[in-house]
Amino acid sequence: MTVPAPPDASVPDGAATTSDDDTRISPGLLKLAGVIMLGAIMVQLDSTMVNVAIDTLSKRFEVTVSTIQWVSTGYLLAMAIVIPLTGWASDRFGARAVWTFSLVAFLGGSVLCGVAWSAESLIAFRVLQGFGGGMILPLAQAILAAAAGPKRLGRMMSAIGVPAMLGPVLGPVLGGVLVDHLSWRWIFYVNVPICLAALALSWRLMPSGTSAESERKGLDKLGLLLLSPGCAALVYGLSKAGQHGSFTAPEVLIPLVGGVVLLAAFALHALRTTVEPIIDLRLLKSRNFSASSNVLFVFSMALFGAIFLLSLLYQQVHGDSAVKTGLLLAPQGVGLAVALLLAGPLTDKIGPRWIAVVGLLLAIAGTIPFCLAKGEINQWLLGGSLVVRGAGLGAVIVPCMAAAYAGVAQHAFNRASSALRIFQQLGGSFGVAVVAVVLQRQVTDTTDAAGGRPNLDQIAGAFGNTFWWTVALTVVAVIPALLLPRTLRDDAAEPAPQPAAMG
Q1: Element of type H or E holding 433
Q2: 430 and 306 in a common domain
Q3: Which of 73, 366, 412, 493 has a CA 20 to 30 Å removed from the CA of 241?
């Protein structure tokens, strides 16, 4: 059966006029999707634009790269801390209030970053940005899922897939243009008009208010104190692993072990507490939700690991600028756009399982040419491979997100969205750390074997060997993908796990 929307469900006036038995997308729902995409793509672009400017910022503030790297690390840690809080905050205060707060925090952080006078001030203001940005993405998913209804989930997840997938492709190009032709400050100022537009439109289109039951929900303080620092410690340890090229260094092991201990303690707490936990692990009892979570975690490892490798391959091996690298990666965005247009309707029509499996196979096929590439590359071959790879990426993310929300009751969407975002962020951090460590060892072994002077083919071979790891991770993701539901329309019959009893 279809679970009715609670009073605070984020359904715009126009969207509510389309019944669950009607598969059409109303004008109101389209407008809401547009506003959500506006806020979400701003966050995704900002992350990748800043990475392009790291070298420029290091020189401008006369600090080491390891110091200025905290501009990115602090942002990621702030996001990791705030994501677990998002579901509860949305339940307690309403989606529009939390969305507005998130945009205002991101806007304020962007303005302050633009006027930063030192590396320390820039890092501090990026943390503020991260607190806002960390809430925007899980909120976007939950709001659209609640507004869509079960028969329109695929198409609405296509909408949220646009910023999630296009951000890493377009960010380096836009960031490079702004840094080269204006100033590093404009990678932050460019957020201001987008934020203001998103604030104005969302205030008109999103309903306000919360249900009486939601207003009585207390915060799981112990769960938050365990989960948020646990996620932050893991993200920090993994970022250090990527920098050191090793998982055994003390500055890597200590936060990793600490993070694992905190997350294990949270798991015990969440399963035993008599109040509603900050993230309800009972959601994983739903086969649809657990299968989707597993696919998204492993797939995020392969996705962000490969993005990391592709950027390094073009910039460090072939000497391309950040702007040119972004343009060379643009074919991936073309394939992605086509897949997003097709994957949503197909997921609604024939179900998520085989769409996701085909997407994973396409991603594998599009990555293999990079495993075999030599020093002198065929741009046409690799460009075509990126189109195929992009199509695969779009065909995976949409059905997985749709299946995840189809597997839980609508009142649990907010916390389910926070959980999914945690899986994606930790998966991406693991993926980048793993390929960074593997790549460093491959390059070291290649350099030693070449007597300290490897040629271009040998360095390209080290990258190729590392790309095989991302292929292997994508193959692993096929296993949980086969457990996704055959059709979304049958999923409503699956009883969603109820949250823990309130004390």
Answers
A1: helix 413-449
A2: yes
A3: 366
| Helix 379-406 with 153-181: angle, nearest 10 deg | 140
Which amino acid is located at 326 in the chain?
G
Contacts 24+ apart (CB under 8 A), 59-67: 60/184, 61/118, 61/119, 61/122, 63/119, 66/243, 67/119
* Cα pseudo-dihedral 109, 169, 185, 60, rounded to 10: 110
186 and 70 share one domain:
yes
> What is the spatial distance between Cα 403 and Cα 29, in angstroms, rounded to a whole number?
20
Task: Check whether residue 362 and residue 254 sit in a common domain.
Answer: no
Instruction: Provide the domain limits for residue 227.
Output: 221-272
Cα angle: 479, vertex 498, 143; to 5 degrees: 75
Q: Is residue 5 part of a domain?
A: no
What pLDDT score does 475 carry?
Answer: 92
Q: CA-CA distance, 365 to 384, in Å (whole number)?
A: 11
Which pLDDT score is estimated for 168?
A: 66
CA terminus-to-terminus distance, the chain? 28
> What is the rounded CA–CA span in Å between residue 169 and residue 228?
29
From the list 103, 42, 118, 43, the residue with the least C-alpha distance to 76 is 43
What does the pLDDT read at residue 42? 81
Per-residue confidence (pLDDT) for residue 123, from 0 to 100: 86
Of the candidates 97, 129, 295, which has an alpha carbon nearest to the alpha carbon of residue 207? 97
Residues of the chain with pLDDT under 50: 1-21, 210-214, 490-503
Radius of gyration from C-alpha coordinates of the chain? 22
* 193 and 297 housed in the same domain: no
Query: Any idea how long the chain is?
Result: 503
> Residue with structure tokens 């979570």?
293
Total domains, the chain: 3
